[in-house]
Write a structure and sequence with these properties.
By secondary structure, this protein is an alpha+beta fold. It contains eight helices and eight strands.
Length: 302
């Protein structure tokens, strides 16, 4: 039963009790939380009110004190800011280390390792290109010297000199692609000069030129064989389109009477007995021919 000499606290007085409790709590802040004496605090607050001339019900003080204590232990999020961010980072330091710092470090290693690997690859590429240029330069010089030593015809020697001169600015510009093309052309020219072969007739065809529908061109189909009888591939310019192609068989245009004579030779026994068309000697690119050089075609399909 409530003491009639004591009064119940209104809401604003409840706040005063809370303030008083906080003052008492701060006075005892050196004590551990589990040592807080509720009853002693209620008595101390009651005494504070009595000293002010107020008689306050003990249970009202107890309710106000309990409310204060429940609010004091309630969680209130920290305000946003640098201190909150640093505190959260410290709390989550293990997660950050495993999920952020280590992957970032690994990524950095990969990036720097990739850059270093790219630099190594680039250096090796430069070294390969430099070695290739040295090799090509030596090959160009060797082929040029071989042609001058073996070529008998002046146009061949002039062609070799022209190609050698063309190579010099390519060497200065470190143009491996252009230099390789010059070396390839010199190698083909050397092969022509140093190889001996026979040109033999294997058949015949005729064509009607597109520009001259009333004219017929007759061709003997021929091929080149080396000293061992191997069929060679040679560059031949076609009079039909002006394109040079490397072929194993081509057509040599001949007068009608020669074409008819070879055709009769084959009809006799199915074999062309008189098959010799020409012979190319070492040191030359021009073959010695039995028949006049009128023109050639590279497409010998019937």
């Amino acid at each position: 039963m409530i003491d009639p000499g004591r009064r119940t606290l209104p809401s604003h007085e409840m706040l005063r009790v809370m303030d008083a409790a906080q003052v008492i709590h701060e006075r005892r802040s050196a004590l551990a939380e589990q040592e807080f004496d509720r009853e002693a605090t209620i008595r101390e607050i009651q005494v504070m009110y009595e000293e002010l001339g107020d008689l306050v019900d003990r249970r009202a003080i107890g309710r106000a004190l309990d409310e204060y204590l429940s609010e004091r232990h309630a969680f209130a999020p920290a305000a946003p800011g640098l201190r909150r961010t640093l505190a959260l980072a410290y709390i989550r330091r293990r997660w950050i280390a495993l999920r952020v710092l280590l992957p970032a470090a690994a990524a950095s290693v990969l990036v720097w390792g990739g850059i270093e690997l790219a630099e190594v690859r680039e250096q090796r590429r430069i070294e390969r290109e430099a070695a290739q240029l040295v090799t090509l330069e030596g090959e160009v010089d060797r082929l040029h010297a071989s042609l001058l030593a073996n070529a008998v015809e002046d146009p061949v020697r002039q062609r070799a000199d022209d190609l050698h001169r063309r190579a010099q600015p390519l060497i200065a510009a470190a143009d491996a692609t252009g230099l390789a093309e010059v070396a390839r052309t010199l190698a083909e020219l050397e092969a022509l000069v140093t190889t001996e072969y026979r040109i033999v007739v294997t058949g015949g065809i005729w064509r009607i030129p597109n520009d001259y529908p009333d004219q017929r061109n007759d061709y003997l189909v021929v091929r080149a064989l080396d000293a061992e009888g191997r069929q060679l591939t040679l560059p031949v310019r076609s009079e039909e389109d002006g394109v040079v192609r490397r072929v194993r068989e081509w057509g040599e245009r001949v007068p009608r009477e020669i074409y008819d004579r070879v055709a009769a030779d084959k009809q006799d026994n199915g074999i062309i007995d008189d098959e010799d068309f020409g012979f190319k000697r070492r040191g030359f690119i021009t073959a010695e021919r039995r028949y006049p050089d009128i023109g050639q075609i590279t497409d010998t399909r019937r």
